[in-house]
Design goal:
The protein is of the alpha/beta class and 128 residues long. It has a domain at 50-122. It is built from 4 helices and 4 strands. It has a 4-stranded parallel β-sheet, sandwiched between helices. Helix 2 (34-46) links the parallel strand 1 (24-28) and strand 2. Helix 3 runs parallel beside helix 4. The chain is globular and about 45 Å long. The chain starts with 5 loop residues before the first helix and ends in a 9-residue tail after the last strand. The model has no long low-confidence stretch (mean pLDDT 91).
Length: 128
């Protein structure tokens, strides 16, 4: 089940409470803002939150995605993984002053799940 709604959402919320987990924030945005994401990670962690964010920067060279075909398949897997991070999170923090198609889709997905969405640059909120 890709969307956590209703009973599934309640079970996840109950499990988080039973485990006394701090708030979980997922960082979204273009990987061109990886330095800003790392800074946001530090700040959010300092505020006592669990932070999840993109783990791969496909814009930077690496052997794992040097083959174009493998890179395309990896991108699809990473998109699925990031949607799972959004489902897990209590809120979303969008980093950067640019919103591309992938980030716009992540924002829409988060909002469809009822996740609050914050922006480091509120003027880029596509729904503002």
């Amino acid at each position: 089940m890709h969307l956590i709604r209703g009973v599934g959402a309640q079970k996840l919320a109950d499990a988080k409470r039973q485990l006394s987990l701090p708030q979980i924030v997922v960082i979204c945005g273009s990987t061109r803002f990886m330095a800003e994401m790392n800074e946001a990670d530090l700040r959010e962690t300092g505020d006592g939150k669990i932070v999840v964010k993109p783990g791969c920067d496909l814009k930077s060279p690496h052997a794992l995605w040097s083959d174009p075909g493998e890179a395309e398949a990896l991108k699809a897997r990473l998109d699925d993984l990031h949607r799972a991070k959004i489902r897990l999170a209590d809120e979303v923090l969008v980093v950067g002053d640019y919103i591309g198609d992938s980030t716009r889709a992540e924002i829409a997905y988060a909002r469809s799940l009822g996740r609050p969405v914050r922006f480091t640059h509120p003027e880029v909120d596509p729904d503002a």
